[in-house]
Amino acid sequence: MSTAEDERAPGTLGLLRANRSLRALFTARVVSYAGDSLSLVALMLYVASTTGQGLAVALLLLVGDFVPSLLGPVTGAISDRFDLRRVMIVCEVVQGGLMLAIALALPPLPLLLVLVGVRGVAGQVFKPASRSAIPAMVGERDLETANSAIGFGSHCAEAFGPLAAAALLPFIGIQGVLLVDAGTFLFSAVVLLALAPLPPATEPGTGPGGLLAMAKVGLGYILRTRAVRIISLGFCAVVMFNGVDDVALVLLAKDTLRSGDSSVGLLLGAVGIGLLVGYALLTRYGARLAMPTLLVGGFLVSSAGNFLTGLAWSVTAAFVVQAVRGLGIAGMDVASSTMLARMVPAGMLGRVFGNLYGAIGVAAAASYVGGGLLLDATNAPVTLMIAGGGGVLFTLLVAFSLPRALRGHIDPKPQPDAGAGPSPEKPA
Length: 428
Description:
Number of strands: 0
CATH superfamily of the largest domain: MFS general substrate transporter like domains
Number of helices: 16
Distance between the termini: 29 Å
Order of helices and strands: HHHHHHHHHHHHHHHH
Strand content: under 5%
């Protein structure tokens, strides 16, 4: 007879050691994301030095992040249409090739924006593909641990990438850093060759079809599936309200708390520290938590953290609150990824993740614009309290509506993709 100890999910290191595929995906994402952070610093410096315009740097960020997010429905459909292993490898090769071209040519701004935009689209395809691959690699009991490990590794890479760029730039320059980034993408592609083939799932009603037709089916599925819709809209609403904190914290430190540039860096890094701690805790204890509770708790902590930061009387108080807020963001990520992986049919999972990540990108852009206008009209504390209060309000809506939606969740029959026949409803 199995004991509770025997049935307990293995720890993160044990899972990575025992699961070659997950270990390869973890390594590939860490290396790739670290290179991404390296190149972002180098590209911003290059654009700033060659154009001298802040608008040019803003355009660089816009085409690299916001524009690809608009293609979320289609980028997710690619994950459901083709072998996930092949999709991820092609994305990494494309990104590596584009970064190599940028490093060797250092093109003028218009061409650079085009190349960065195409690279951003490839990265947008990679995100849902890598998330959709996890349920195929691990058992259901290990989903929390696997998602926490991937989140921890990716965030570590993104957090320490700029520090590595600062260390490398004096020795190899902007062009050298960009070449290093190209190498990380190609290395990631080689690592992903260790994966077994991950063919598209043959779920009823999700057979092969044109990408636009599949994208339409994916959007329809989210709109018709109440539980999935609540999770997705709740996540995007929290991001839309709270995304402005990156800008507001700068003004809070300098204008309200009358502190220096080092305090700005301290506040901006606090969430990152909280994220690292949060992912580390979830890799150990995530399997013991109820994911709906973790999701709502993450929404609440993330939003209330900004509200309380607006009331902070010192940089130290704001730092502590923002670090705690990072714990909530880690919980949001792990809970949403795990719940969707369990609820959504395998053949629809790429489209759900693609739409979610795309919508999050749009929500973040809306937060920057709306929050910037609010900052100009008021001040940093008021903006943070309004942002956090709005997030708390939507958290309460999710808390009241999600449990009933989960109890009544039955996976609705997706509209057949082109070439697929009708199929009966199937419980999730």
